[in-house]
Amino acid sequence: MQENPLWPVTTRFPRLGADLTVDVAIIGGGIAGISCGYYLDRAGYNVAVLEQDEVGSAASGASSGILYYGTGTHLHEAVKLFGKDDAKMLWKESEETIKQIADLVRGERLQCGFRQPGAFMVAQTEEEKRILDVELAALNSIGMPSEIVKSYELRKWFTPREFRYGLAFDICAQIHPAIFCAELSKKFGVPVYENTRMESFSEDSDGVTVKTPTGTVSCGYLFVATNLQPFFGLEKYFRVESSALIVSQPLGDAEMKKIWPNETMMWTLGEQYDIIYPREGRNVLEVYRVRDIKSKLEKYYPGVEFVVETQWGDSWSKTDDWLPIIGKIHPRVYAAIAMGDQGVVMGFTAGRKATALLNGEQDDFLELVSPSRFEVGADNQTSNI
Predict the structure, then answer these.
(1) Percent residues over pLDDT 70 in the chain
(2) Could you read off the pLDDT of 235-263 as tens digits, one per residue?
(3) For residue 324, is the peptide bond before it cis, meaning its omega torsion is within 30 degrees of 0?
(4) Residues spanned by CATH 3.30.9.10 within the chain?
(5) pTM listed for this prediction
(6) Number of alpha carbons in the 13 Å side-chain half-sphere of residue 25
């Protein structure tokens, strides 16, 4: 079932109807699974993506599709969590992912709502301004220059509400993630089977056997790109979070220009931050707690008649350390789980790293996000998901 009612996937893929043999089977047709399929297929592997519902269902489809650095923290917080070198590596890897998505969309003309309007982290008090100062210093320290702009400059982008300061992020972009997944699969012929649920798998020294209601898939390796529970005992390291998008009815171009003279995205500070932006003639509010919506709309869009057209959202799992889980779980089974607030960026990054993962290449990013950082019960060679 499509989670996004305004920008749903219209391309459909067949259900698995017979037994299949491939090099790599991938479970999950979201951003991580499709990206793994794309990169492994480009590397010469024979792949198949199995999706229990439809491409674009669940968290990937419900996502706002904002492409930003890192895994959900500010950089200065990431430095405290992971150390400066690893935090820098996370920011550089996510920057590379955003660039590769932009190049892929533009080069292949993928119709997925891509835009790159940049973004501002906005401060409403002097105390919040100090957080921007700390973040700016952290960015400068790893060679990512930015700048802090004042309220009069912010009004060049957004007029209804005055924010006192904003920290600029020019690279930030946005896609419709579910449509991107479908377009990528269709463009490059990555085999996707919808409505094909993995009931169980078994692993031996020769490969992996995946059971579905409509056929058996024999493969050399299995990538699990969904965090549906149970998940090899790793679920005890998850916590569940959710977000919701509240979207207005479409407005005319002139009216939108009065509100947003130039397109951008703005998010507030704090762990449960809010995001506002224009999207294809509509005003959008994204929240991480679905409460006090009316007061938030009045706060961020004062004087604007925000007539809600629709609202949607979903829940996802997030690790306690804010990192994705990408790496080997069993000898022939790999996780490619995006997790966190930057699931679209981390999901695509998992795909970028899939070939290196299979080839056993040394990679600092993969070492940081490996499941080996947890206590994983790797003795079980048969699993139900």
Answers:
(1) 96
(2) 888 888 788 999 999 999 999 999 999 99
(3) no
(4) 119-170+250-306
(5) 0.93
(6) 31
Q: Of 224, 204, 277, 270, nearest to 246 (Cα)? A: 277
Q: Which strand (E) or helix (H) includes residue 165?
A: strand 165-169
Give the span between the Cα atoms of 84 and 72, in whole angstroms.
16
Residues making up the chain, counted from first to last:
385
Q: Give the pLDDT band of residue 382 (cuts 50, 70, 90).
A: very low
Are 61 and 347 within 8 A, CB to CB? no
- When computed from its CA atoms, the radius of gyration of the chain, rounded to whole angstroms, is 21
CA gap 3, 244 in Å, rounded: 11
Cα pseudo-dihedral 223, 358, 31, 333, rounded to 10 = 10
CA distance 225 to 40: 14
Maximum Cα–Cα distance across the chain: 66
The pLDDT of residue 385 is 47
pLDDT for position 384:
45
How does strand 47-50 pair with strand 192-193? parallel
Phi-psi region of 332 (alpha: psi -120 to 50; beta: other; left: phi over 0): alpha
Instruction: Extract the tokens encoding 43.
Output: 């590397």
Q: Where in the chain is the domain with CATH 3.50.50.60?
A: 20-63+177-238+320-383
In sequence order, which residues have a C-beta less than 8 Å from that of residue 338 and are 6 or more positions away? 30, 31, 32, 324, 344, 345, 346, 347, 350
Please give the pLDDT value at position 376: 61
Q: How many helices (H) and strands (E) does the chain have?
A: 11, 19
What does the alpha-carbon distance between residue 345 and residue 172 come to, in Å, rounded to a whole number?
11
Q: Which two tokens stand for residue 111?
A: 């119709």
Architecture of the domain whose range is 20-63+177-238+320-383 = 3-Layer(bba) Sandwich (3.50)
pLDDT tops 80 at residue 377? no
The architecture of the domain spanning 119-170+250-306 is 2-Layer Sandwich (3.30)
DSSP, collapsed to helix, strand or coil, labels residue 35 as helix
Q: Is the pLDDT of residue 375 over 90?
A: no
pLDDT tens-place string over residues 197-210: 999 999 999 999 99
- Asked if 284 and 174 touch (Cβ cutoff 8 Å), the reply is no
Report d(CA 170, CA 163) in Å as an integer: 18
